[in-house]
Amino acid sequence: FLGDGALYMSEILRIAGQAGYESSLVKPTTWLGGEFIVWITHTFPVEQTKDPFMIAGILAMAITTLGSFWALRKERTPVTALLLALLAGSGGTLLFFGYVELYTLGYAFAILYFVSSWTCFRNGGSVWLPGVFLLLAMASVLSSAILIPSYLLLLHWKFKGEGGKPDFRTSTLILSLLPLAGAILVYIIFGSG
Q: Which tens digits make up the pLDDT trace of 104-158?
């Protein structure tokens, strides 16, 4: 774990040992992820402070795996195998193996966002399902908001096609610049410190 992992593990002792303790794990930037860890701490027996994070990783891996298989159920077997192999081989899967971090649930929902977006493109799947997964990812880890432009582009493609107004290429350029504009705006409002 990184430096903040030690703080997270000490929070487990407080959550488990003090009734009604309001944990710092539950914060606006990781609301659902923090609530998930608190729920696990209260629901499962905790012998070591890393246990809730290990359980969170296992549950997030199950959500990712089952959700991906469900979303890809209409896809051909070779394509499904390739997508799942790419997901399994990604560095983010380290979160599923006991990594002490709050991002496991957010990562699981972000993967399901990408997989359901893929099925929307490939098989005409629902455009709203990726939106639900994006909202869950953002509720888990607010930094997932960086994916909003991709969802807006998906909506543009689904409802206006590539020839809509503005055209798909212009929309892609505009939406790609949104995160940069947002970062500049945050820097202007809050400063560098």
A: 999 999 999 999 998 888 877 789 999 999 999 999 998 898 898 889 888 887 8
